[in-house]
Structure formats: C-alpha cells, structure tokens
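Field notebook, page 414. I keep forgetting to write these up properly, so this time I am using the form the group agreed on. The chain and the ligand, 2-acetamido-2-deoxy-beta-D-glucopyranose, are recorded exactly as supplied. Prediction of the bound pose follows.
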Amino acid sequence: MESGAFHYCSSVLLLIISVGILLFPLMVASIGINYGQIANNLPSPEDVVPLVKSVGATKVKLYDADPRVLQAFANTGVEFIVGLGNDYLAKMKDPEKAQAWVKTNVQAFLPATNITSIFVGNEVLTFNDTTLTGSLLPAMQSVHTALVNLGLDKQVAVTTAHSLAILETSYPPSAGAFRPDLTACINQLLSFHAKTGSPFLINAYPFFAYKANPKQVPLDFVLFQPNSGIVDPSTNLRYDNMLIAQIDAVYAALASAGYKKLPVHISETGWPSRGDEDEAGATPENAKKYNGNLFKLMKKKGTPMRPSSDLNIYVFALFNENMKPGPTSERNYGLFKPDGTPVYSLGIATNEGVSNATSFGGPTPESSGMPNTMPESSSTGYLSISSSSPERYHLGVGPAFFFIMSMVIRLVLY
Ligand SMILES: *[C@@H]1O[C@H](CO)[C@@H](O)[C@H](O)[C@H]1NC(C)=O
Ligand SMILES: *[C@@H]1O[C@H](CO)[C@@H](O)[C@H](O)[C@H]1NC(C)=O
Ligand SMILES: *[C@@H]1O[C@H](CO)[C@@H](O)[C@H](O)[C@H]1NC(C)=O
C-alpha cells in the first residue's frame, strides 16, 4: 500500500518533471516591462510586485534608480535595468561622481535585487544637442569604470537607449542605416558596446507610423494581426509586422557599421489605449491587440535576419502616467490604471493564470509629489512624414500594395 502510493507519487513527480522539461522552452519567455513613474497617484512599490508578476514579467526597466522600488523587489527574482537620466550625463563624466552613484544606487541593492544593467541617457542622440551628445560616451565610460573598480562589471552592463529616429533608412529592413550625421558618434558607442559586451537598446513605436498616416499604413501589419506581410526584395525575407521589420533594420544598420554580432534589445514599445482626436488608432481595442500579440511574440525567438537571437522586449508601460506632458496618448500607454486594475484585458495566459490584476485601495497619497528627476519620453521617437525622393526598389507585388508600403516606409524612415 505504502509502496504503491510511493510509486504513484514518484510517477506523478516524474511526469511533472518531464512535462516541465518539455514545456521549458515555452516557459523561458522573458517578458520585460517599463515602470515609469511620472504620476502622482501610483500604488506603493510593494503593491506593484504582484502586478508585475501577474503579467508574467521577469524584467523591469526603471527610468531612475528609485530606492523604494529596488528595495520592494528584493529577493523576487525580477531583473532590473536602472536608468541615469539625461540631466546626469554631464555630472557622470566625473569618474568619482560616477563611482559614488554606482555605490549608492546599484551596489547597495545587490545581490538581493538583481540589477543587470544601467542605461545612461534616454534617446540622447535625437535631441540634436551637441553638448548632451558629447557627454554620452564619457558618462557611459565613467559608469563602466566604476563598475570595474567595484568588481561589478561582469554582472552589470552599461548601455543607453536610442530612438528609432537615429535611423536614416529602415525600409526595406536590409537597407537599414544610421543617420549620416550621427555615424561618427554611433561608431564610438558601438565600439564601447563591443568591448564591454553590452546590448544596443532601441525604442520603437509602430503606433507613430500608424498615427501619422492611418489611411495608408495597414493596421493589421502594425498590430501583429494576420496579414499578407511584406517581402524584403534584397533578402527575400518575409515580414508580417512592422516591429520585427524595424528590429531587423537596426540589425542591418549595425552590420553595415561593422557590428554584426551586437545584440539589439527593444527598450520600449507599446500602444496607447486613448488619444486625442487626431491620434488615430489610440483605442483600448488596438492597445489590447498590440500588447496582447506582443506578449505572445515575446515567447518566441529571433527575427528573419537573426533567427537565433533572443527577443528582448520591454513593453511601455506598466501604468498610465497622469503627469506626462504631450498629447493624451502619452498618459495612456499603461497596462494598468493607477488603482492597479487592468486598462483592458490582455487576454494572455501567464504563470499565474489569465492576466487579471488585483485591485488596490486607490491612489496612495504618500507617493504624490514624488520628484520625477528623469525626463521620460516615448514621443521623441516620433516619425513624421517628410517629402523625400520616391522609393526606387520594387516589392514584386501589386501597385496598390507598393503604394501603401512606400508610405509605410516613409513613415518609418523619416
Ligand atoms: C540575475 O540575472 C542574471 C541575468 O539573467 C542571471 O544570470 C543571474 O543568475 C541573476 N542573479 C541572481 C542572483 O538571481
Ligand atoms: C535633428 O536633426 C535631424 C537631421 O538633421 C532632423 O531630421 C530632426 O528633425 C532633428 N530633430 C530635432 C528634435 O530637432
Ligand atoms: C478579473 O477581474 C474582474 C473584475 O475586476 C472579474 O469580474 C473577473 O472575474 C476576473 N477574472 C479572472 C479570470 O480572475
């Protein structure tokens, strides 16, 4: 009897283990999320831990190094990218200041909170501010040197996040190229990445392309819905959504700069659930499709150009942030409302069942008036249409589709 029960148990255990092993490749999905805090009504960081877990996210990107958040996530297994805002760059050129910052904001939380990277500056190059741009690499170098001195450089990487607008060309993906006026600066950054082994981060928003030209840009192509896709005429690779095409454009730009092996991570992408009247596509239905499909995509691997690469994607964003300036969409990228309820159902199965947030007791007054030292921007990557010479490649498809895609291309490019 006892022995029978034992056998039964051990078989069940074996079954669980084998199923676990079989399912493992599906479960290693690493879902990242941006935790922006430009708001005065967000729940306390302790209450955010279950929310992050409810969507199955294992990686969180902060725009600062908020000690309350880093403390709240201690021993949760969640990995962190912490940020150093653009207004810190000039100061961080000083190696002593960089070392003091790393000690206080990174070293103090390790190893309980798993900080794996520091991103120095957000979308710096596309501000066209020569002083700011000139401080970027020296700041990254000081921060890296500080990590070396503290013996942390093997576990904490140093990088920066770019807007997709650093590309001059992004279509077809194989023609991806950096803006010529930025190439000297980018080449130095790329050399830094290659030497220190850190990834190249890009913020990419197919929403901007759609919003700028909703009549021409096929909605299904930007929302990862079934559609006929496009074929890159020089590689014959097929793309069925704009985000992956944008990632490959970055890979192509890196390859032509001589950095074929550098990994690309998507540090921000998302879709707003509300917008102004002139912001076509900003609806809960579209946001649900974009982000729901994105969560499914994050469980897969690779792009047509880099099939075995990891897709490292950070969704923007965890919360609607009521104090962000700009159009209405800027305050409505969140998966969650400040009270912790979902803005829409993502419809995804996660570790903890179907995503459904627990509710919070409303806004937490103690978090109001919190300083927002970090300029956070998802709008600086805005891609507007500009007059440009007609595209000259041939897609090998019908003229209407060619027209549509050439519009898409312009949107993506300029
Ligand atoms: C932190 O994250 C890295 C990257 O995934 C992982 O290799 C490492 O084991 C983690 N460290 C801890 C203490 O969990
Ligand atoms: C920066 O310069 C580029 C290239 O000259 C231009 O296309 C872009 O609009 C400028 N961006 C800003 C924010 O001024
Ligand atoms: C999700 O929450 C809503 C109310 O907030 C509730 O009606 C629904 O039953 C919940 N669904 C799941 C799967 O827990």
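OBSERVATIONS:
- The chain is about 35% helix and 15% strand.
- The radius of gyration is 22 Å.
FOLLOW-UP: compare against the apo run.
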